[in-house]
Input
Amino acid sequence: MRVQNAWKEYIDGYVKEYCLNYDTYFQEKLDMAKRELAKLMDVGPEEIAFTHSVSDSMTLLANSFPFAEGDNVIITSEEHASNAVPWLALKRFGVKTKIVESKGGFVEADDIIAAMDERTRLVSTASVFFCSGYTVDIKKIGAECKKRGIVYCVDATQSMGLMKMRPKEWGIDYIGGGGHKALRGTKSIGYAYCSNELAERLTPHTGSLQGVLNAGRPCVLKDFDEIKWHPGAGRLESGNYPFALIEAIGLGVSLINELGIENIEAQIRHLEAFLREKIADLPLRVVTPPEKNRSGMLFIYYPEGADPEEVRKILWENKVRATVRYDYIRMTVDYYNTEEQMEVVAKALREISELK
Output
């Protein structure tokens, strides 16, 4: 509700006062959102930047990092396009993208580590794979990257706000994500955590007044070498800030911080285990990562030949909100869910298992 109310107040004020030169810059909204995200990850507010999306966050890093021809980047075959295309596109600069193949939707940290060599400059993985719910061992990968001097980047879209994330403790240099999932924000807004150490190595491929210290109004710069970039993640920001979207993500994260991410993660893990036990006897194929690699996300294949519209109807009638695609159901347990609701989900899945 705090997110919804903020949206209403923003647009109502903008429309009402627009003809009176309504204020269009809100530093306090920007600062609040950065403080909340920084608190969630236990980092400095100056290490947070706002972007348009997770793909924008990854593209910023890919095109701002000082790669040289012959360098390589490591990703996995389970990455969302947002964390694959930006790295694959580096081929035009002579940078190779090495892809570690998954085994049934899972990728062991040891396989990623085995792919590293003396020309590996960066590793980028999701924290949780969006097509299996598998939680990557980012601590192990981060520790190895730190030991070898390799930058570690994480797409945290599927886990931020649901699971604890401590980049400084875990050897993570960069995190990109979107605000439309567990952070309670909306689409068209993303964020990036960029460590102060990494920021000093980046020369942004895009830039504007927001990313530099000495642009002035009008711009007084006459040469690229005169630019003084912001010392932290702020150098990655450019263009007018979407303040309503930024406030939305900040207020959504404020709720998470009030509840406590440790409490949220414990609740999600408990409810996932509870639900898996309730549906264990059903004749449905359920993707089952090892217990230590579960995330609260479930992939459940409905009976072969069943009408997906019938599957959607059963879910809807039971007030279960999930995605039905191809031949599977994708759902994520959230912190506001209860055991009673998991009973309802199990009932709906039992009905679906009886479809022909």
User: Anything to note?
Assistant: DSSP finds twelve helices and eleven strands in the chain. The two ends are 41 Å apart (CA to CA). The longest helix spans residues 261-278.
